[in-house]
């Protein structure tokens, strides 16, 4: 099964598939939040989205970590655009852990990180790299900056 076949809802309320958003490219899927100490990572994510031709960053707002994404869809869109110039696609607010976990995250959380640990998303800005065929291939924990050399190298390898 390809993750690109999964239905998702965009921040504007449109139903689509992950594949339609990625358009035959690799994707970096990141659960995001507007009121988190890691929120400045938006700038690095936007930079990757702009600089790497074969990559689409997909932001997934989630309010599951200490209520750090409390805004409406319109507020989230406005914040991301005005504060960080975000042009990459954003999904509707999504549960990434627990009983209401979206099927996308049910699949992604099975992937282990570099230390071999799989399971629940630990915090905002956890990153999952998906290849052009919609297969998850790498997981980067929240503190891994979007400019981290290991992350950038893997992105460029898959997006090239």
Strand order of the largest sheet: 4-3-5-6
Give the distance, in angstroms, between the N- and C-terminal Cα atoms: 23 Å
Got a strand count? 6
Number of helices: 5
Largest sheet: 4 strands, mixed
Highest CATH level, the class: Alpha Beta
CATH architecture: 3-Layer(aba) Sandwich
Count of discrete structural domains: 1
Helix content: 25-40%
* Percent in strands: 15-25%
Derived structural class: alpha+beta
Gyration radius (Cα, Å) is 14 Å
Principal-axis shape equals globular
**Which ranges are low-confidence, i.e. pLDDT below 50, for 5 or more consecutive residues?**
none
Report the order of strands and helices. Answer: EEHEHEHHEEH
CATH fold-level assignment: Glutaredoxin
At the fourth level of CATH, the homologous superfamily is Glutaredoxin
Name some characteristics of this structure.
four-stranded mixed β-sheet; globular; alpha+beta; Glutaredoxin; 160 residues
Task: Write a structural description.
The longest helix is centred in the middle third of the chain and has 12 residues, at 73-84. This protein is 28% helix and 18% strand. The strands form two sheets. It has a four-stranded mixed β-sheet, with helices on one face. It is built from five helices and six strands. With 160 residues, it is α+β, with helices and mostly antiparallel strands. Helix 2 links the parallel strand 3 (26-32) and strand 4 (55-61). It has one domain: Glutaredoxin (3-Layer(aba) Sandwich), CATH 3.40.30. The chain has helices at residues 18-22, 41-51, 73-84, 103-108, 149-159; strands at 7-9, 15-17, 26-32, 55-61, 127-130, 136-140.
């Amino acid at each position: 099964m390809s993750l690109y076949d999964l239905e998702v809802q965009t921040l504007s309320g449109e139903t689509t598939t992950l594949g339609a958003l990625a358009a035959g490219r690799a994707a970096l899927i990141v659960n995001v939040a507007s009121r988190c100490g890691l929120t400045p990572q938006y700038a690095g994510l936007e930079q990757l989205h702009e600089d790497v031709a074969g990559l689409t960053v997909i932001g997934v707002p989630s309010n599951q970590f200490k209520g750090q994404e409390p805004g409406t869809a319109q507020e989230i869109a406005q914040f991301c655009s005005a504060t960080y110039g975000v042009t990459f696609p954003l999904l509707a607010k999504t549960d990434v852990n627990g009983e209401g976990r979206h099927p996308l995250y049910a699949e992604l959380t099975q992937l282990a990180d570099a230390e071999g640990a799989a399971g629940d998303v630990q915090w905002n800005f956890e990153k999952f790299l998906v290849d052009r065929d919609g297969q998850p291939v790498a997981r980067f924990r929240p503190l891994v900056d979007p400019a981290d050399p290991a992350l950038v190298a893997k992105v460029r390898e898959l997006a090239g």
